[in-house]
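We modelled the chain as a single entity of 81 amino acids. Its sequence is:
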Amino acid sequence: MSLAHSTDEPDDIAAEEAAQLLGEVPSSIRRLIDRGYLHAHLTDGRHRLSRAEVLAYKVRQAAVRRETLAELVRFTQEHDI
């Protein structure tokens, strides 16, 4: 978890906005921060994240979902399900 005390950068967003961008709830964003999937810093006691990093995470997760779905389709075809 990366929680440095610093000032906001121009593309910094609140955890609530990150949650909206990812279709999640703010507590899920805090879990992603705690687990090291997203980096954040604290400003006035609130998590701030890089919008670019949040959007990059969204793209990575979409790719993982597509690959997982492709694997599931291959499995069902191989096993005639």
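As a brief sanity check on the tokenised model: The helical segments are 15-22, 26-34, 51-78. The chain has a mean pLDDT of 90.
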